[in-house]
Amino acid sequence: MKTSLLALAALSLATPAFAQTAREQAETARQSDEWAWDFVEGITTEVGPRQAGTEAETRGRQWAVRWLTANGFANVSDEPFEMQTWVRGSEQAYVTAPYAQPLRITALGNSASTGPDGLEAEVVYFPTYADLEAAAPGSLTGKIVFISHDMRPTQDGSGYGFAGPARWTGAGLAASKGAVATVIRSVGTENHRTPHTGGTSFAEGQQPTPAGALSNPDADNLERMFARSSDTPIRMRLVMTPRNVGTTTSGNVVGEIVGRDPSLPPVLLACHLDSWDLGTGAVDDGAGCGIVAAAAKHVAEIGQPLRTIRVLFAGAEETGLWGSRAYAAAHADEPMYVGIESDFGADRIWRLDTNFTGSEAALYRELANAVATFGVAPGGEVATGGADLNIVREQGGALVDLQQDGTRYFDLHHTPDDTLDKIDPMQLRQNVAVYTAVVNVLANRAEPIALPMATEATSE
């Protein structure tokens, strides 16, 4: 394939066509960036969901090693690490009174089991996470907590930061006040009856309790029930049987486009290879791995870069950044030149942020000019880097955030709908073009990147 950046730019301006039928996928392959599409189509078709620490994630790593090797990457390896692994069981929820009916629910990662016989209790409704915080200690003893802390779509994904605490720590907070289980409104922006999974956490020493997420329509329905029955308790029965399987092996897959001067610190391009088990991990984050790998290949096609370009397909991101932490520990004495991650789907990149915009004004302008033709605007935020770039943050290094349009990302995030047909081939191609332009500049720059004071460079 010999696809120029100019051709990528022209295609990136085409009218997007979102969901595809199976019949249209051959045409998608023709229209998309060949390498990025080949990666995400291949791993979702031949492996599918890749939950962290499971046999499926192992097959995903093996597949990725073969793909990188077949596509000319050097120094390809699978770097193993150990992790604690949680797996899903059966999942059912029912309102038993006063309006008996089933609800769609999925367990949250780290949820405890109800046991096969389930549990039934009165439900206490909290419209927001702040309302739950205000509940008195011990006031929820024996109750099921329902947190309906909803999320709105935003281009920059900022709604996730608002709604996320309900999932991240809501169950632990409810348990600390006596609740026997927690259900939340899914942290997502669509109105399909497809609940969103994701990890939850409990304080050290705290006994986990069953925790699940209701689909948004079911959360709406439950709210209406509370509006109708202010004097009548609502009771719910939950059956969720996830389990912890103990220590298993995950790993980080790495590969390189070797530069003309391998002694220089490399450009690190990251994504994560694992996914939740409900969908096939196309948008989160198969597309991201395809994007960074394709960009590395395009830069190599332009000519051998000065610096080595290293791709990091991190393992076990979804269940606690296991791979990011393991990679940072294993390579702590190996400086990185700059870190960039793709982990926000495959929709159009619209903004360029760095943590050196002021300290390296000329470099920032060069990067901004390189991506302007693809419709990417300069940004004013300080880049903090993706989840799998712990090593760069710990080194106080340079970071670039290529901000993707997140307007529909949380329609798909952690749901059964995270499948290949949701990837728009034209927007995928624009991502590859932008990454290629940025990486080409950085990988061919000899000078170090001057950063502001550490506190400013890493501010959130």
Task: List strands and helices in order, with pairings.
Blueprint: H1 5-12, H2 25-31, H3 34-46, H4 55-70, E1 74-87, E2 91-97, E3 101-103, E4 105-107, E5 119-126, H5 129-134, E6 144-147, H6 159-163, H7 165-168, H8 170-176, E7 181-185, E8 211-214, H9 216-228, E9 235-240, E10 243-257, E11 267-272, H10 282-302, E12 309-314, H11 322-330, E13 338-341, E14 349-354, H12 361-372, E15 377-382, H13 390-394, E16 398-404, H14 409-412, H15 425-443, H16 454-457
Parallel strand pairs: 5-6, 6-7, 7-8, 11-12, 11-13, 13-16, 14-15
Antiparallel strand pairs: 1-10, 2-3, 2-9, 4-8, 5-9, 10-12, 14-16
Question: SS-based structural class?
Answer: alpha/beta
The share of residues in extended strands comes to: 15-25%
> Quick one: overall form?
elongated
Low-confidence stretches: 6-18, 455-460
CATH class of the largest domain, named: Alpha Beta
